[in-house]
Amino acid sequence: MAFLEINKINIDYVTEDGVVEAVNDIDLSLKEGESLGLVGETGAGKTTLAKCIMRILPERTARINSGEIFYKGTDLLKLEPEKMREIRGSEIAMIFQDPMTALNPVLTVGEQIAEAVQNHQKVDDAEAMKKAEEMLELVGIPAARSSEYPHQFSGGMRQRVVIAIALACNPKLLIADEPTTALDVTIQAQVLEMIQKLRTQMKSSLILITHDLGLVAQNCESVAVIYAGEIVEYGTVHDIFKDMKHPYTVGLFTSIPKINEDVKRLTPIPGNTPDPVHLPKGCKFCTRCAYATEKCQNEHPELYQSSEGHFVRCFLKGQGGEKYGKQ
Ligand code: SF4
Prior knowledge:
The chain is of the alpha/beta class. The chain has helices at residues 46-54, 81-90, 99-102, 109-120, 125-138, 155-167, 185-201, 213-219, 237-242, 247-254, 294-298, and strands at residues 4-15, 18-30, 35-39, 62-71, 74-75, 92-95, 173-177, 205-210, 222-227, 230-236, 304-307, 310-312.
């Protein structure tokens, strides 16, 4: 069994406007030490999937209708809340998008890292603070600043503190949800470089959630492109960048700036993501796809294998290959 194996997960949100199908039949697996990018626009279901792995979906509105998430052979969705609390933080940790909301404004950064340590390790206050100071140094913040509060740090520095908290217990799986979106461009690269360096040192696996295919190319080995709650293309970064197949992946790629090309205007993907309460019956991308046919509007494409390890959910680009996942 894989290190992390997600089987046929379906998640809805019950809202006043109706039922939002947020994640539909997602199958994914991750090897120990592997880095996987989840790419897609806002609202595609990436964060919902990550929160489902962490078991932190809002209980009032989210419904996991079916599926399994095996972590080292144990189905996380069947674990007692107490057991899941032990795993969260010590085995699986998440870095959230906005460092300001992830930090407690009334505790010093040292206290917050020390608290994360004591939640999972039986150490006294002095030892926990020592570990907190080591973690601060590891993320490039002088230990002497451990007695300062979050508002005394810049956005980039705060995100480093969030990373220090996430990594304090040496998690085996790190989920980074748009970890650099709230930061300015010059700091983004430094923070990602640091996440990569630390996770390599700690031999952690990484799930990087982003809307930026460029970040995935630099930081991941494999990639799942997600559109309207389902995987539309999946493969190694190498295969997908060499031969991207799904029209949505191509659209994402042509909408990012390239440093070596003098392009006056970027080409955005036309249209908007479909209303999640009323998703199209056939291919969910059919309202924005230049190649859509009548069949695309009426039938839902499977995820087909187009070549070894490379899968695409498209009648035009993928049909004819083997189906992916547990049928
Ligand atoms: Fe476009 Fe049809 Fe392929 Fe969907 S199945 S991506 S609508 S060509």
